[in-house]
């Protein structure tokens, strides 16, 4: 496994490289980048066909920053300097930046300099006289804000759902559970991040059903990319022991992996190892992150190919709910997760709700023509 990007580059190109950038975090960033591209493409397509529209917004430019804006910028600058310099230095030295990032230690001089720079920066657009301007705002221009807010709330939701899943550990070592670098529940991130996207769309006069359709392919792709990071780093999201005989055409790592050099140091010590992560599992387990990454990227490809054929609003979102729910429900059969009601894991219970919601949505969409009168008057069908 490759806990850091340096480990991955060293393996691929057979050269020693010290880049202590976490593989899991890097692929999470790539997942958001992939979702960003897909979201923007769907925003533009939906705007072009008239499904959604931009809006004229009025802005006052040239005003001096308010005390709150000044405080927020100075605080942001201080944090970037106080923590950022030490994190960069740790990366260049090949050391792990996480312990320093999660501690109270930092660089006061760099923090002060960055705070001053950020405080001055907010004055750069101040004019001698403020004026009100009006501009057209395209829906896709919301994406930087959507990505930032969805990332913040998504990580929060993923961590909270994981804490609930490990409620016993949370009771005794809450800080260790909440601040651990591993331990993120996908559905927590999906629910919190998805609700954030819907809220931002609603505030900008985009109908919720249109926002849900726009986001569905991107969310599927982001999940597939994120799972690649889980597989490459060995972050603990693997499955149960695979006791079946391997078919000859399947590579061992795709059938039953021991996750050598995994990022969480799970398993037994690898004799003679001198690296930072020197553990592997005693028995081969199902590499479920690999399976999910392949499945979800294939499902995204399917959704992307048929997106222009699904002309009914809400159909893409209902399809996403069903496909994602079915995929996760069955993959959970191979994963090591706590079981609750009816021997179902937290993810399986949520997956069943998603499947039910998607099926109910499709039933509702087929009934709309009838309830609108088209079912009783065939002449109305062409106008629906």
Structural class: mainly alpha
Number of strands: 4
Name the overall outline.
globular
**Chain-averaged pLDDT:** 83
Low-confidence stretches: 375-384
Terminal Cα span: 54 Å
Q: How is the topology of this model organized?
A:
Elements: H1 5-13, H2 23-48, E1 55-61, H3 67-93, H4 98-101, H5 108-121, E2 131-137, H6 143-165, H7 167-172, H8 174-179, H9 186-203, H10 208-233, H11 252-255, E3 268-269, E4 279-280, H12 288-306, H13 315-331, H14 346-371
Fold and architecture overview:
It holds the Pfam family LGT. One of its GO terms (molecular function) is phosphatidylglycerol-prolipoprotein diacylglyceryl transferase activity. The protein has 384 residues and is mostly helical. It has 2 domains: 23-54 and 139-240 and 286-383, no CATH class; 56-137, no CATH class. The protein is built from 14 helices and 4 strands. The protein has helices at residues 5-13, 23-48, 67-93, 98-101, 108-121, 143-165, 167-172, 174-179, 186-203, 208-233, 252-255, 288-306, 315-331, 346-371; strands at 55-61, 131-137, 268-269, 279-280. The strands form 2 sheets. The protein has a two-stranded antiparallel ribbon. Strands 3-4 form a two-stranded antiparallel sheet. α3 (67-93) crosses α5 (108-121) and α10 (208-233) runs antiparallel to α12. It starts with a helix and ends in a 13-residue tail after the last helix. The model is unreliable at 375-384 (pLDDT under 50).
